[in-house]
Amino acid sequence: MTAEYMNAVRSRLAEVEDPVVRERAARLVTEELLSTALKAAKDVRTAAVGELRQGRTLKEVAGLTGLSVPRIDQLLKGK
Known about the structure:
By secondary structure, the chain is mainly alpha-helical. The protein is about 80% helix and about 0% strand. It is built from four helices and no strands. About 5% of the residues are buried.
């Protein structure tokens, strides 16, 4: 999600007059929508690292991405 998108969400939430409804809407964003977006982004990241791993060592992939070797290993294991 881009900063522009998140600013739009924040703005829309701020427009909700009833604080109970506003809290529930904000909770929906944080608990459901963001967690779904986070999982989707993680899946894309894991797939990209998997592609980079083909024919390369973990150290080489770490060098390409700027991540540590243990972090590359974690991503490849789905952590």
